[in-house]
Every structure is written in structure tokens, then in C-alpha cells.
Design goal:
CATH class: Alpha Beta
Family: Belongs to the kynurenine formamidase family.
Strand order of the largest sheet: 1-3-2-4-5-6-7
Number of helices: 9
Keywords: Hydrolase, Tryptophan catabolism
Pathway: Amino-acid degradation; L-tryptophan degradation via kynurenine pathway; L-kynurenine from L-tryptophan: step 2/2
CATH superfamily: Alpha/Beta hydrolase fold, catalytic domain
CATH architecture: 3-Layer(aba) Sandwich
Radius of gyration: 17 Å
Order of helices and strands: EEHEHEHHEHHHEHEH
CATH topology: Rossmann fold
Protein name: Kynurenine formamidase
Catalytic activity: N-formyl-L-kynurenine + H2O = L-kynurenine + formate + H(+)
Largest sheet: 7 strands, mixed
Length: 243
């Protein structure tokens, strides 16, 4: 039987009786096959070993470029979140995205329904979304390519024309759903692939819109170490709250 995309969803922890979930979205510049839903197993293990986790820990996958381009990555994320909500009977979810996983997590929060063949699925996902944790993310492709022109090698694979197809977040921030109460921006000082410019850009957008959020700068290792770092695990244990 041919594997479906949802078969690559990983559920690392499922306490009995819970209807809440923290769902991870991996990075990899939309193109890297080495980044998968399993990226977050070590972080999940750290959380379980260190503290009490009374919510589901799960991770989803999405198809990569150049085989597909935007908005397919985002459509895959929403489809898999929708299926997970239905299958696990979830009433609340929070998203943790790393790198372009953070981009995708935020796009889920503010996405234009016109990008989806079935907007009812996006509506359901957004209605369950109560928090996002955005780690070493990309929030503006214009800013990114101004700082790193060479990064066009992956942007051009993910977007046919990013200037037309990527909605800069300053134009979509007014679509944040009212039930999204928790926003965390995190960045590691030792990230060698992204400076603080992206996180500072996103922070300035949220401040300008008077949207409450929490900002955390810390030494959580290099770009590919962040999502396996004990400091991130401890931060999540202290800040992932379902009410």
C-alpha cells in the first residue's frame, strides 16, 4: 500500500484522557529531506523526562520543494492538522515551528482561505489553535533575501514568484484569530543561519499591532541544535498551558 503523507505523522506522547496537543512543524528551508516529523523526538523525550506533560506531543510532515511549491506545503500542514484533530478528538492545539516550520505555523494562524480548496478545514484548525511557539523562524522573504541574497536558491524552489505569492506578514497580521491567545518568539544567539533580524522584524510587527507576545533570546545552540536543546524543552514545560 502506498504511504500517505499522514502516515508520516509522529505521536510521541499521548496521555490518557487529554484533548490538548502541542504539534511540531519541522524546518528545512522547504527543501531538505533530512528534516522530518521525527526531528522533534529528542525534544519530546527531554520534555517527558524533565517534567509533567499532560498533553499530546505530536509532529507532522509536508511535501517538499521542488516537487511542490507554495501553497502546497501549507495545505499539507493544514490537512494533517485537521486529520489529527479529528482522529485524536482534540479541542485545543498549540503549534511549535522551527525555521520555515515557524513560517508555516504562523501562516496557519493568518492564512487566506482562498489558498485552500476546502476552507472549512482551515477554519476548523484555526478554531482549535490557542498558541504558537515560533523558533528561529523566517517571517519576511523580502527581509531575508536582502540580508542573505544567496538564500534565493531555496526560496526560488519553494515559490514560483515570492514577491507575488508570499504574503508578507505585515499584510496578514490583522487575520489573527481571536482564540489565539499565546504567541512566543524564540531565537538562539548561536544560530549561524539566521541573525536576530527576522525575529526582531516579527517582534516589531506585533508591537506595532499592539498584540501581546513573549520574546525569548537565549543560547540554545546552532540552527539545527535548537529543536533538540534542553533549554527549549524547559521553556516549553513552563509556558505551554491549556486552560
Amino acid at each position: 500500500m502506498k504511504e500517505s503523507l499522514y502516515d508520516r505523522t509522529e505521536v510521541f506522547h499521548r496521555p490518557e484522557g487529554t484533548s490538548n496537543a502541542l504539534v511540531f512543524i519541522h524546518g528545512g528551508a522547504w527543501i531538505d529531506k533530512n528534516n522530518t516529523a521525527n526531528d522533534f523526538k529528542e525534544l519530546s523525550d527531554l520534555m517527558i523526562e524533565t517534567g509533567t506533560v499532560d498533553y499530546v506531543l505530536a509532529s507532522i510532515d509536508y511535501r517538499l520543494s521542488p516537487e511542490v511549491q507554495h501553497p502546497v506545503h501549507l495545505q499539507d500542514v493544514v490537512e494533517n492538522l485537521y486529520r489529527m484533530i479529528q482522529e485524536l478528538k482534540l479541542t485545543s492545539i498549540q503549534l511549535l515551528g522551527h525555521s520555515v516550520g515557524a513560517t508555516l505555523a504562523w501562516q496557519v494562524s493568518v492564512s487566506d482561505e482562498n489558498l485552500f480548496p476546502s476552507p472549512d478545514k482551515l477554519q476548523l484548525v484555526k478554531s482549535k489553535l490557542v498558541g504558537v511557539f515560533l523558533v528561529d523562524g523566517i517571517y519576511s522573504l523580502t527581509e531575508l533575501l536582502d540580508e542573505y541574497p544567496s538564500y534565493d536558491y531555496f526560496v526560488s524552489q519553494a515559490y514560483k514568484d515570492f514577491s507575488r505569492d508570499f504574503e508578507e506578514f505585515d499584510r496578514s497580521i490583522n487575520r489573527i484569530p481571536s482564540n489565539l491567545k499565546t504567541i512566543h518568539l524564540l531565537h538562539s544567539y548561536r544560530d549561524e543561519l539566521l541573525t536576530l533580524r527576522q525575529t526582531n522584524y516579527m517582534s516589531s510587527l506585533l508591537q506595532k499591532a499592539a498584540i501581546p507576545f513573549t520574546l525569548c533570546f537565549n543560547d540554545m545552540g546552532s540552527h539545527e541544535e535548537v529543536y533538540r536543546n534542553a533549554k527549549l524543552a524547559n521553556y516549553l514545560l513552563s509556558n505551554v498551558v491549556f486552560t
